[in-house]
Amino acid sequence: MTATTTAPHRPGGRVDFGRTVWVWRTGPLALRVDRRSVLVCAVLAAVTAVFGVLTLGSGSLPLTPAQVLSALFDPDADHRARLVVVNWRLPRLLFALVCGAALAISGAIFQSLTRNPLGSPDVIGFASGSYAGASVVMLLLGTADYLAVASGSLTGGAVTALLVYLLAYRGGLAPFRLIIVGIAVGAFLSSLTSMMLLSVSPQQAMLAATWGAGSLSGLGFAQLGPAAAVFAALLVCSGAVVRPLVHLEMGDDTAAALGVDAQRTRLLATVAGVALTALVTAAVGPIAFVALAAPQIAQRLTRSCTTLRIVPAALTGATLLVAADFVALRVDVPVGVVTVSVGGVYLAWLLARQYAGRRR
Amino acid sequence: MTALTTRPARTPVPARLEVIDASLGYARRTVCEHLDVTVPDGSFTVIIGPNACGKSTLLRALSRLLKPGTGRVVLDGRALDSYGTKEVARRLGLLPQTAQAPDGITVADLVARGRHPHQGLLRQWTEEDERAVADAMAATSVTDLSGRPVDELSGGQRQRVWVAMVLAQRTPLLLLDEPTTFLDIAHQIDLLELFADLHRTGHTLVAVLHDLNQAARYASHLIALREGRVVATGTPWEVVTADLVEEVFGLPCRVVPDPVTDTPMVVPLARPRSTR
Amino acid sequence: MKTASPPDAPTGAARDVPGPRRGAGPVRRVRHRPLVLLAALALLLAAAVLSVMVGARPLAPGTVFDALFHYDDSDAHLMVRELRVPRTVIGLVVGTALGLSGALIQAFTRNPLADPGILGVNAGASLAVTFAVAVLGITSAARFVWFALAGAFVLTVLVYVLGSIGAGRGTPVKLTLAGVAFSAVCGGLTSAMVLKSTATLDVMRFWGVGSVGGRSLDILPVALPLIGTGLVLGLLSAGALNALALGDDTARALGTRLVATRVTVVLAVTLLAGTAVAVAGPIAFVGLMVPHVVRWFVGPDQRWILPLTVVVAPAFLLAADIVGRVVLPSGELRVGLVTALVGAPVLVVLVRRRKVSTL
Predict the structure, then answer these.
(1) pTM across the whole model
(2) For the packed helices A35-57 and A90-114, what is the interaxial angle rounded to 10 degrees?
């Protein structure tokens, strides 16, 4: 890795980006990254690791960080500690990582797509659709079986997203029409869900409401495998679609002139964003706010001109969810409840700080 | 006449870009029918005509932003829609009117976005990318601004940055949609001189310009449009005549040689009071 | 988001070009404005009359008329006076407040996704009511009103304070984000309390879906002055909001006092939406949808949008409430549900048929 500041100066070579960039060129690779982004990502990863170890150590069998690390990496460690940490607690942590990252990428894609900081997969009704689907399974069919609820939520979300897309399609896809239709369909489904909640016993309502808040409890390696595989595949797709998508922020004509197929990119981005949310919702329920907040937080941390930087966004999302899960374990509430609170506090703090910085 | 040996010359100057018997328009409105337009290789082609005559529509068709209803657009001997999107973008650069800079983006970042058609998932910033961006910024004199946010720049600087982005694309063909709009006269000339330099160094340029005198001064090839039809094509002295200006724009005028460049210069006559 | 009514552009990007390219649409819209207003007034009148006439128990129009003007203490008269009239009046008041606050917040933030809850009103009210239920053990709906009112106002003040720190003070985007942030925190705390106790959940799942039924008119002496003040402040800012739509710089050049306008609008939205949520609980969709629909009919002029919204929104709310009463006479279909169930399909049909104006 060479810093451009040390590269030999020749006319027509060096470009000043107004900040330190690192360029890495070997073989087929030619990458450019901002130093700030790299540092931010490193810090985020470190914070995630710390919270991860703390999470693995907390529960009915409290363990010190040292005990957690030895249980993780030392095969000869205390058998009981290994069982608790690796078999019981690790899947939950990994789920938090994957889901946080997936939600954040999905949010980044939708905020860029709709050019609106309030844009999120929810604008096309996915969350309300999957909540409605899961509620039908839990309240009308009366089963709380993990697979049944997951497929209910997946079906509900996918059908809703498809419906919104079809209703909004009229000789092309205007982002604005998509948003309005999404809000309308989402509101419609939320009302149906509320109706179901009002018509059942308080205990059943509690069951649905807990799922609706999004919870990581009761997850094991059996559920993690498929989720991680799907996430990996979607990560690659998102990486490919993000590069053309970022150019759409300059207007369709400019993007087209740079060789971007606007309609196709938009469709692929929508599919990737929805699929990422679908993955999370099916696995752990609708975890609120990470998709909305993580890209915004990452953008402010890296001082980027777009929310569509998926590595910092994904790491922010993962950090957010892992930290939230740590808190959720302590106060015994579903993790979605904490993400909302923690993300909100952090966004507020960030806003306040940003003003102070700008006043100068 | 340079380097024509690589292909059979059917005409003295082969066409880079051609519109053949095309009808152009939008969902409910056809702007042009049976349109034939040729952009000669190595030319600085300027499209002139009154408002709403189809200038921008023609440019959109040439740059593949608008698909012809019938007929076709041909780039370097092949139908435009048979190319991949990035392939077109490596041959043909476009400066649209509607470009928006993302909030807070710096000049260098924006110019670097022009390299998109040359980049891939793994090849995001090659030596060549860096050279192209640096050269483009140097050519448009925005190197000193490179770390500044685009939204802090003046209108003239901002337009030069957009031109730099298109230049960084390193395409032999450049399409410019009213590039001088919103600029003061000094910045207009500045930019047009830059285009003239690009023309001299072998680029083929197509521009839509509003100012007839500037068009006549810088173009090597003029296309005059009126109500979606080509009224005249040729060198400035062939096209810019008093009769034609009257026919196309409805403006009575005299055409005199420009005292500096000896190109045709349109001097409008005072309109008789009775017509208003 | 510009005010220019966009041409039927093939791409999303061209929409952002402000410009003189206006088709015949706005001209036609302008000419029809008085007609639209008259039609809306007729609609409101019809909705109000129907709301008193229609109910779980069918009554002859004559009986209803007598109940209003020749009251005789019979069961039927009692029902009209004690149930249907309050329900209609509450619906009118709440609908007006929700509609106008929605129109104001959308114009103010220049964001068509904004709804009155965006400054934290609903979240604050919900948190306060949940607190009353879960911690203080209050279960009478009548006393929720005061908690809801206090919660709504306290939270909006907090949002405004956070949104006004430093140089970029009070800009719509920062206020929106501040609202989102605080609402999120409140939402989290609310969920945490609700999910801890089934009893709390049982109360909150009903309060959380707004209703205009079963409320007493006792709240009106407090609610009416608050909403009235909000109404006056809101309607008076129409001109300033028109200027604001052209961007902050242009607005200032046109002689608009930015800070004064912002404070006025935020105050109006808080008074209107805060009181509405206290009176009826959170009712979704009215504040979001009605201004959109109105804008499609009369164009981007706030001097028409705001008054027309004031007329259309209560008509819509009453109509939704009537539908709920007719479909499920047991009263389970609360108006907070019907607004979305009825409004969503209407919005979808409209958005597909009309040229969409972003704002």
Answers:
(1) 0.77
(2) 140
